[in-house]
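Quick one: 2-oxoisovalerate dehydrogenase subunit alpha from Capillimicrobium parvum, structure tokens please.
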Amino acid sequence: MATETARTAEAAASDHLTTTDRTALLRYMLLMRGIEARAMTLYRQGKVPGSFYDGFGQEAVSVGAAFAMAAEDRLCILHRDLGAHIVRGVTPARILGQYMGRAGGVTGGRDGNIHFGDRALGCVGMVSMLPDMMLVATGMAMAFKLRGEARCAITWFGDGSTSRGDFHEAMNWAGVQRLPVVFVLENNQFAYSTPVDQQFAVNPVRRAETYGFPGESVDGNDAEAMFDAVRRARERAIAGAGPTLIEAVTMRMHGHAAHDDMKYVPKDLVALWRERDPIDRQETRVRELGVDTAALRAEVEGEIEAGVQEALAMPMPDPATAADGVFAAEAEPLGDGHAPWSGFAR
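--- reply ---
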């Protein structure tokens, strides 16, 4: 089976990040992995309804990309990109409360699991089917252009999404209108059980060129490479040069969801990608800069455990409020999220 592994580049530290930035990238990735690990345990204990989807091994894609976005930008986040929510400022307690359907979760218990977004932080709630969020992000970018606003929208989607019409419609309109939008394709080698060599004959990076804008293939297990690629794409969008497609080459290290034992994935392929773990890579970089990563890990674990206890203490939503918020009484604008990159402070 052909894989995309050969096209990934060697790790290269960014010239646009301070030691504090690099440590923050590691911290956000540790939070994402730790929260999802605890959520999986809660799922197996029967406290998380439905199924559970995680992004184990893909932390660099969402964290590195979201880190490059400004507070006023808008994020359309996919289910394996919890790191983007964390970068924007959503707390572990609210995320875990969301998974358990608690009143203190992001949607107030209206939806358990993965379909959530915090409007106040500029995070748009995920829409199934995929890649519908590409159209949402493209529409937002169209609004930015019509209003003359120097803002950018970004969205994430999987390799399976590239086989659907929504993908092509969003790419075409964004290209024709030269919209300020960044498309992040998470090429994690499998669309459920379909490998990428059965998914497309022409790589989507080349397809972007046919819609009139550039595409770039990036090592999706390198948070700093992801940051750099999205930073360049955002600057290009804000300058009025139009959209960019970024292919983040990575690997889905767990099954499609908690119920999937991924027997269809060759074990040697998983072993190969385990050696490219994005957190291990960033931790090595940060440790070489003199940061006490053991202390950082302990701090993150404490924050997650506090979040777990806070979420478990949240009540279930009041059934009498079940119909609240079904219809919007008035348009509620999206707010600005956290933009932690030091470059925005200059």
